[in-house]
C-alpha cells in the first residue's frame, strides 16, 4: 500500500510541474525554478545510469579529504566515535519504546507475483522497506515512465540518477562494511557482545555465510534513502515539502532499524554523509543553472507619447496623446 501511494504521489508531482517545462528540440530543456534561475537539462543517455558510478566513488573519496569539507568528515567521524560507547543503551531504550507498537519484531514480507518478497506484512516491515533499494527503483521507474510519456528531460535524468546512486552507495557501503566487520545488534545480543563485536576485514566466505555478524557499519538503508531524497530534492527545489516529508520518513526508518535491532545509532552518521554527497554529486552533474533576468519576463506594452502646447490670448493649453 505504501509503495503504491508513493508511486501515485510522485506521478502527481511530476504531472503538476510538467507545465513549466519548455521543450527545445535541440536536445535540451529549461525548467523555471525561481525568479532568479532556470535549470537546463540535456537528454539523458541509457548508460548514464552506470557510467558515472566510478566518478561517484572517486568524488566521495576526494570530498572526505578536501580542506573545505574536513568539517563535515570530522563531524561524521566524531559523532560516530562519541555515540559508540552508548550504542547498547540507546538500542535497549529504542527497543523498549518500539515494543509498544510492535516495532521490536522481525520484518516479514509476502511475495509479489510469487517471486519477489517485497510486500510488507505490517507497518513495522513497511517502515524498514522505505530505505530498501526496491523503493529507490520504484521511484526511478515512476520518474522514467512520466519522462518518457511527456518527453520530460528533468524526470528522465532524475530516474537515471536514482539508479546511479543506488549502485554507487552500494559499492561504498559494502566496501566499508567489509572493512569494519561490525556485528549487528541482534547477533551481538545473542552472542553476548554489548555494542557489537568488531572483526575488521572478515573473509569473503565468512561475510557471505554469516552477514549479520559483519555488516552493521554503516547503514546501507540510511545511506540509500539519503541519496534518494537528495537526488529528488536537488532536481525539484521548488517543491518545498519534499525535504520535510523525506527527512521525517528517514527518521522513522532509522528508529525502526534501532528498535528492531538491525542497526546501532552510530551506524548512521557516516551513512548520512555518504548518501548526501553521492546524491548531490549525481544530481548537480546533470544540471546547468542559468540565471534569469526578472525584467525580461515582464510583458511590456510599447506606446508613443506626444505632447502639444497651444497658446491663445487668454489661455495656455497642454495636450498629451498616446499612440499604441
List its traits.
single chain; 324 residues; alpha+beta; four-stranded antiparallel β-sheet; two-stranded antiparallel ribbon; 13 helices; disordered N terminus
Describe the model.
This protein is an alpha+beta fold. The chain has one domain. Helix content is 55%, strand content 14%. The protein has 13 helices and eight strands. The strands form three sheets. It has a four-stranded antiparallel beta sheet with strand order 1-2-3-6. It has a two-stranded antiparallel sheet with strand order 4-5. Helix 6 packs across helix 12 and helix 11 runs antiparallel to helix 12. The N and C termini lie far apart (60 Å).
Could you list the spans in which at least 5 consecutive residues all have pLDDT below 50?
1-25, 297-303
Q: What strand order characterises the main sheet?
A: 1-2-3-6
- CA radius of gyration is 27 Å
Number of helices: 13
Q: What is the residue-averaged pLDDT?
A: 83
Assembly state here?
single chain
Which descriptor suits the 3D outline? globular
Number of domain modules: 1
* Structural classification: alpha+beta
User: Into which percentage range does the β-strand content fall?
Assistant: 5-15%
- SSE order: HEEEHHHHEEHHHHHHHHEEE
Quantity of strands, as a count:
8
Can you give the helix content as a percent range?
40-55%
| N-to-C span | 60 Å
Largest sheet: 4 strands, antiparallel
Amino acid at each position: 500500500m505504501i509503495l503504491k501511494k508513493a508511486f501515485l504521489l510522485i506521478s502527481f508531482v511530476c504531472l503538476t510541474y510538467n507545465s513549466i517545462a519548455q521543450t527545445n528540440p535541440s536536445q535540451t530543456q529549461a525548467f523555471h525554478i525561481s525568479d532568479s534561475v532556470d535549470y537546463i537539462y540535456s537528454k539523458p543517455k541509457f548508460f548514464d545510469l552506470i557510467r558515472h558510478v566510478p566518478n561517484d566513488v572517486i568524488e566521495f573519496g576526494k570530498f572526505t579529504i578536501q580542506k573545505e569539507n574536513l568539517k563535515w568528515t570530522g563531524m561524521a567521524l566524531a559523532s560516530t566515535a562519541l555515540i559508540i560507547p552508548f550504542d547498547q543503551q540507546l538500542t535497549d531504550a529504542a527497543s523498549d519504546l518500539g515494543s509498544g507498537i510492535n516495532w521490536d519484531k522481525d520484518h516479514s514480507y509476502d511475495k509479489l507475483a510469487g517471486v519477489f518478497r517485497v510486500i510488507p506484512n505490517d507497518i513495522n516491515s513497511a517502515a524498514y522497506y522505505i530505505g530498501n533499494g526496491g523503493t529507490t527503483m520504484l521511484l526511478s521507474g515512476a520518474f522514467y515512465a512520466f519522462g518518457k510519456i511527456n518527453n520530460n528531460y528533468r524526470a528522465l535524468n532524475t530516474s537515471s540518477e536514482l539508479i546511479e546512486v543506488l549502485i554507487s552507495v552500494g559499492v561504498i557501503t559494502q566496501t566499508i562494511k567489509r572493512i569494519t566487520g561490525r556485528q549487528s545488534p541482534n547477533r551481538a545480543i545473542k552472542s553476548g557482545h554489548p555494542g557489537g563485536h568488531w572483526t575488521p576485514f572478515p573473509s569473503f566466505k565468512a561475510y557471505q555465510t554469516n552477514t549479520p555478524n559483519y555488516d552493521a557499519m554503516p547503514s546501507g538503508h540510511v545511506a540509500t534513502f539519503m541519496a534518494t531524497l537528495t537526488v529528488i530534492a536537488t532536481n525539484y527545489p521548488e517543491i518545498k515539502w519534499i525535504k520535510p516529508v523525506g527527512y521525517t520518513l528517514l527518521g522513522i526508518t532509522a528508529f525502526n532499524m534501532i528498535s528492531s535491532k538491525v542497526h546501532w545509532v552510530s551506524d548512521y552518521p557516516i551513512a548520512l554523509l555518504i548518501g548526501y554527497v553521492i546524491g548531490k554529486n549525481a544530481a548537480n552533474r546533470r544540471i546547468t543553472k542559468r540565471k534569469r533576468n526578472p525584467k525580461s519576463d515582464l510583458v511590456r506594452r510599447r506606446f508613443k507619447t506626444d505632447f502639444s502646447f497651444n497658446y491663445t490670448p487668454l489661455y495656455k493649453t497642454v495636450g498629451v496623446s498616446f499612440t499604441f
